[in-house]
Model the fold of this input.
Amino acid sequence: MARKRTKKRTHVGANNLEVDAPGHASARDPKSMVIRIGAGEVGSSISQLATDVRKVMEPGTASRLKERRANKLKDYAVMCGPLGVTHMMLFSRSDSGNTNLRMALAPRGPTMHFRVEKYSLCKDVQRAQKHPRGGGKEFLTPPLLVMNNFIRPDSDSKTKVPKHLESLATTVFQSLFPPINPQQTPLKSIRRVLLLNREESKDDDGTFILNFRHYAITTRSTGVSKQLRRINAAEQFMSTKSSRKGKMPNLGKLEDIADYMTGEGDAGYMTDATSGSEMDTDAEIEVLDSAPRKVLSARARQAAARNAEDEEQEENVERRAVKMVELGPRMRLRLTKVEEGLCSGKIMWHEYVHKSKDEIKELEKRWEKRRQEKETRKREQKENVERKKAERKASGKHNEEGDDDDEEELDYSDMDVDDFDSEGLGGDAEYQVNEKMEQGGEWEDEEEEIGKGR
Done:
C-alpha cells in the first residue's frame, strides 16, 4: 500500500514566525480574519466591503482568505487556534436586508454585534476626491488607532449603556492592533490612521454608535517651494521604467527653467513663506534628521561637544506639514448586542430586549442546564469512541484510518453552531418566539404534519 503523502511545500514558512520586518506580523501581534458568512448570498457590495476592511487590518490579517458557500462559522473557529487568530470580523446580511458585523475574540469570546447602518466603499471615497491616494507602502505596517469618546464621564452601572460595556468595547478595539512605544517607534512606520469616533447620544437613549474612518498620512517639507518639490519627485521617478512622462513638469512653453522656478511675473523664487499665502501652522511638526552619520572618534566627539549644541540641533530639525487623505471605507456601526462566547452564549447586553431580575435568574438556570447537557453529550461521545476502539482491538480489525475518523466526530468546541443567527437578534429573543409558539399549540400542528409526511 502506498504511503500517504504529506504536504510540506505549502508550510515552508511556518517554522519561522518571529518576523519583525515591515510587512510581516510577528507571532506576538494580534491576527484577524475578516469573513463573509454565507458567501455568494451577501451580495457584491458586502463582499467588497469585507475586502476593504481586510486592507485596513493589514498586515496582520488573512488578506487572501477565500470563503465558500458551504463554510460555516465553526469551520473558521476551529482554525483560529492553529493559525494564531485572535479576532474574527464576520459580515452577513439578514433576510430583511440589514448588514451586520460581528467582532469576536477567539476562541472564547465575547462577541459584539453591530448593525452597519451606513457604509461607503473605498472606490466611492476615492471617486469623490480630486487627488486620491493609491495603495503603496502604507499597508506594510499596522495603522495608528485613535479612539474618541468611548467612555462617557457620567456613565455608571445603571445607565442604559453601562460603564463596563464601554470599557469592554475599548478593550476589544485596542487589542485589534499591536501596541506602540512612542519613544522607540519610528515615525516613518506610522503611515495610516484608523479613527473610531463614538457619537454622543442624546439624553442617554441607550445607543452606542461608532463612526469608522481610515486615513493615510502624508508629509511634505514646508521650506521648499512647490516647483522644487515637483522637480525632486520627477528626478526620483526618472530611474523607474513607468510613469516617467506623467511625473515630469511641462516646460515646453518656457525658455528657461528660471521662469518655472520664479513662477508667473517677477516675484522671484517662491516658497511657502514668500508666496503671500497664509500657512497652516497647526499641521506642522518638527522632525529630527534621521540620516546615517559617520561614526566619530573619541577626540572628534569631544571637539563636537564643545561647539554650540543648540545650533547643531536646529540644523538637524526639519519642519514638515502633515496631511491626512482618506482611504476608506466608511462605516456607521450601531451596537445591538453583546454576548459571551464565540457567537453563542449568554446575552450580556441588548439594546432592544430588557429583562427583570427574575427573568435573568431563570435564564441563568436554563444556561446551567444547557451546559450540563453539553458536557454529558461530550462525555457520551468520548465513551462511544473508546468503546469502538476497544471492540476493534479485541476483534483484530484495528484500522488507523477508522480511528482518525472517529476522533474527528468529537466536538470539543465550546460553540454551538445552531445558536448562530444571521439576523443578530438570536438568543433570548429567539427563545421567546419559540415559547409563544409552544404555548399557542403551533408546535403540535407541525408535529402532526411531520408525522403524516412520514
The domain at 28-216+327-350 is CATH 3.40.50.10480 (Rossmann fold). The mean pLDDT is 75.
